[in-house]
Amino acid sequence: MVAVDNLVTGSRANVAHLVDNAAFTLLERDVSQPLQIDGPVDFVLHFASPASPIDFPSMPIQIVKVGTLGTYHMLGLALAKGAAFLLASTSEVYGDPLVHPQPESYWGNVNPIGPRGCYDEAKRCAEAFTMAYNRAHGVDTRIMRIFNTYGSRMRTDDGRVIPNYFRQALTGEPMTVYGDGSQTRSLCHVDDLVTGALAVLDGPDPMPFNIGSQEEVTMLELATIVKRVTGSSSEIVFGPLPEDDPKQRRPDTTRAREILGWEPTISMEEGLARACDYFESALSVKR
Ligand SMILES: NC(=O)c1ccc[n+]([C@@H]2O[C@H](COP(=O)([O-])OP(=O)(O)OC[C@H]3O[C@@H](n4cnc5c(N)ncnc54)[C@H](O)[C@@H]3O)[C@@H](O)[C@H]2O)c1
User: Fold this and answer.
1) Least C-beta-crowded within 10 Å: which of 49, 73, 142, 144?
2) Is residue 45 a part of any domain in this protein?
3) What span, in angstroms and rounded, lies between the C-alpha atoms of 64 and 137?
4) Strand pairing class (175-178; 149-150)
5) Which CATH number is 76's domain given?
6) Exactly one of 72, 94, 106, 119 is catalytic; which is it?
7) Do 54 and 158 contact (CB within 8 A), yes or no?
């Protein structure tokens, strides 16, 4: 296995357990640049992209490039090697959705020129590139639209709600809920996401699959659950809602269930308990 990563948001520590494995190579490269890989390649899994809203203002051009040029180069690699290709797309292709929950047939409500446009539109372009290579060159492509996912090896300061709440709760800082906290997300544990990715790759269909959890929670409820799971005495405070923050998010995963037989199996309570262990160790704090 060759992992290609320019480490812009990733880290060597995340693959430290793999470096002694002779079957694993980490290639520190930017996939927005052309890339040659020696030898046969069976699968190209294109997951490279900064993914947290905290990255959007500081690296919008890199984000547009990796979604567009990066996808183009990875599709070119798959074509040259006769490999199957999987695109890690996103629920952000639905923008601030006017349909709830979101089925794959919904075309979305995206602001192309807002602060999230660099990410949302790059992923929409990535999907268009993927379907173009499937139709024009017969590349064996798959698209998964990932909904909010969390778990081990997340950056503790990446600005997404789970790292924010755990960091604040475990270090005794106030827990910041944006707006009135009534906006919802459905959060999928990374272990379920991985089985979902493999199911999409094994599946028969190049059209997109939503992969995520159906268990929807308001951001205020989530703060209280994290507070309970961590046994924290942090107070919950309210801050301004970020621009273009989607009000609700829940995937319709009927396609994944009926065609791939995939469903998440890890409840939110169980997933958050596992996440708590990880954040405790990553932040070197003791409860
Ligand atoms: N975590 C989520 O909730 C979520 C939701 C929807 C979609 N996704 C998608 O899943 C993928 C992985 O997300 P993640 O949450 O694990 O984020 P992550 O930041 O942990 O992983 C992304 C990796 O891509 C690397 N990268 C970024 N730009 C690159 C480039 N130009 N060349 C090579 N490597 C590059 C980063 O260094 C990092 O290691 C992303 O494509 C993201 O858009 C994630």
Assistant:
1) 73
2) yes
3) 24
4) unpaired
5) 3.40.50.720
6) 119
7) yes
